[in-house]
């Protein structure tokens, strides 16, 4: 996507410097900063500190981390150590382990003197695949938005509600939940996006920054406003991303997603999840009991970051001193609350049969495991 007229991916490989470049998302939407990632420690910190964030982007970052590990020392022992080091950075998004496993399996089958070159080539491949997956999700989601638009009169826009940032900043490009939005906007379909602020990190501000850069009409709202808008017929469709989706279609996403799904069900609003296939965890069935939920720092709840009147990026405390903060980063939406899963292969029901129908090869592997 574009920033001030220049196309960017969320990460890219600088061949001259032989190093990964990332957009340091801690400073957005107020300041656009690019950081070079040089060491395995840098990779781990980038993931933990959410300089890069979003399940697909975390996976792509980890793949480049394995490429660095193979360049430093291609031995099996070192690759195993790098795998374990990066795997512990964040527990919930399955793309992290998916990418690490894919890299390790591929590399260990090769002679040591071939691993460094192969690792970098695979990291590029994973990044490029993510772009194409998300573009295809957008095309499949576009058809849903188009059908809603066909029922509108007098040029009334299709009104969508998002939660968190499942945009291009959370992927290598296009985004998951935003990809259909961009496709619809570019196709000339009138749309308007209600953007949840998504406390505690206010990642909705990233979505607003993205949509504004692309010229998509939108309004930034508090998390608790969504149900009210649905009650008054002001939401035609909810579309969110996912950090891990179970084999039966339970969806783990940013905290607060479950409440949006409940409100959508109560008000007969379609609730769709944009789902890239690497985010499916074929080893897990019951999302509520089996998916580990990351508990992040209480400071994310007790403090908030913004720009003061002097134009400085600052943090301020919003709670009384000494008040403890709880910060579960994700929740799970049971599959019966999900209208459909929008994948790169099409749209399916949030059921084992729906997922198996689109990804029969993965279903067969899971059955044998």
UniProtKB/TrEMBL annotation:
Metabolic or biological pathway, per its Swiss-Prot or TrEMBL entry: Amino-acid biosynthesis; L-methionine biosynthesis via salvage pathway; L-methionine from S-methyl-5-thio-alpha-D-ribose 1-phosphate: step 1/6
Residues the UniProt record annotates as site (Transition state stabilizer): 164
Keywords: Amino-acid biosynthesis, Isomerase, Methionine biosynthesis
Keyword Coiled coil recorded: no
Residues noted as binding substrate in the record, renumbered to the chain: 53-55, 90, 203, 253-254
EC number: 5.3.1.23
Superkingdom of origin: Bacteria
Catalytic activity: 5-(methylsulfanyl)-alpha-D-ribose 1-phosphate = 5-(methylsulfanyl)-D-ribulose 1-phosphate
Pfam families: IF-2B
Catalytic-site annotation from UniProt: 243 (proton donor)
GO molecular function, one term: S-methyl-5-thioribose-1-phosphate isomerase activity
Homology family: Belongs to the EIF-2B alpha/beta/delta subunits family. MtnA subfamily.
Purpose of the protein: Catalyzes the interconversion of methylthioribose-1-phosphate (MTR-1-P) into methylthioribulose-1-phosphate (MTRu-1-P).
Name of this protein: Methylthioribose-1-phosphate isomerase
């Amino acid at each position: 996507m574009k920033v001030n007229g220049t196309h960017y991916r969320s990460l890219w490989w600088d061949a001259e410097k032989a190093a990964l470049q990332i957009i340091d998302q801690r400073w957005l939407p107020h300041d656009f900063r690019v950081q070079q990632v040089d060491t395995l420690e840098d990779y781990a910190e980038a993931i933990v500190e959410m300089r890069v964030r979003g399940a697909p982007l975390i996976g792509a970052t980890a793949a480049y981390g394995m490429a660095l590990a193979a360049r430093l020392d291609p031995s099996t022992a070192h690759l195993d150590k790098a795998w374990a080091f990066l795997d512990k950075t964040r527990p919930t998004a399955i793309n992290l382990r998916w990418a690490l496993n894919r890299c390790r399996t591929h590399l260990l089958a090769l002679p040591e003197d071939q691993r460094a070159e192969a690792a970098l080539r695979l990291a590029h491949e994973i990044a490029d695949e993510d772009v194409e997956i998300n573009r295809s999700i957008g095309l499949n989601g576009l058809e849903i938005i188009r059908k809603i638009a066909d029922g509108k009169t007098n040029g009334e826009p299709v009104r969508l509600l998002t939660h968190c940032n499942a945009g291009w900043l959370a992927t290598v490009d296009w985004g998951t939940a935003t990809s259909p939005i961009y496709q619809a906007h570019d196709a000339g379909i009138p749309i308007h996006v209600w953007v949840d602020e998504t406390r505690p990190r206010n990642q909705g501000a990233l979505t607003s920054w993205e949509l504004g850069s692309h010229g998509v009409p939108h309004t930034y709202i508090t998390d608790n406003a969504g149900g009210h808008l649905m009650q008054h017929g002001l939401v035609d469709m909810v579309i969110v991303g996912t950090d891990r989706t179970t084999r039966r279609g339970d969806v783990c996403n940013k905290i607060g997603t479950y409440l949006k799904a409940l409100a959508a069900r109560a008000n007969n609003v379609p609730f769709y999840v944009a789902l890239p296939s690497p985010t499916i965890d074929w080893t897990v069935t019951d999302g509520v009991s089996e998916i580990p939920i990351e508990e992040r720092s209480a400071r994310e709840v007790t403090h908030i970051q913004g720009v003061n009147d002097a134009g400085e990026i600052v943090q301020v405390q919003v709670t009384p001193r000494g008040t403890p903060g709880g910060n579960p980063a994700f929740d799970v939406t049971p599959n019966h609350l999900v209208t459909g899963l929008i994948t790169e292969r099409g749209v399916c029901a949030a059921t084992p049969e729906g997922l198996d129908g689109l990804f029969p090869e993965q279903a067969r592997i899971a059955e044998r495991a």
